[in-house]
Design a protein that fits this description.
Shape: globular
Helix content: 25-40%
Strand content: 25-35%
Number of helices: 4
Order of helices and strands: HEEHEEEHHE
Strand order of the largest sheet: 3-4-5-2-1-6
Length: about 120
């Protein structure tokens, strides 16, 4: 079983594999009881955001991790994938700029991206 940090890193790697960009992992431990980590990323279009969400879902399922809940997959402007201790947010660019989660959670420490953490690519 993966730790919440490993789960966050795995979902970020999966997003990167589908060419998501501006991938950010926020460590929310100690700031909220809602979740341990947010993984936030962008797709250049709703089509790409949907493809990123699909690939993250497949990657996580292969690791034996199932979401508690998924929202927004049909429209794909903002897909939220709730894995309990990790919540993944996949945004279309304009929607991400509008909601600015990284600003709302600006006090949260940032976790190095997977390639910077020395993890192998998927």
């Amino acid at each position: 079983m993966l730790s919440s940090r490993e789960t966050a890193l795995l979902s970020a790697e999966a997003a990167d594999a589908k060419k998501a960009f501006d991938i950010l992992i926020l460590d929310l431990r100690g700031l909220t009881y809602i979740t341990d980590y947010f993984v936030i990323c962008s797709g250049g279009s709703t089509t790409q955001a949907g493809a990123v969400a699909d690939w993250i879902g497949q990657t996580m399922a292969q690791a034996g991790i199932r979401p508690d809940h998924i929202e927004g997959q049909a429209e794909a402007h903002w897909v939220l994938m709730d894995y309990g201790d990790v919540v993944v947010h996949i945004f279309e660019v304009q929607t991400r700029a509008y909601y600015a989660l990284e600003k709302i959670w600006g006090d949260a420490p940032r976790v190095p991206a997977p390639e910077k953490a020395g993890l192998p690519a998927l």
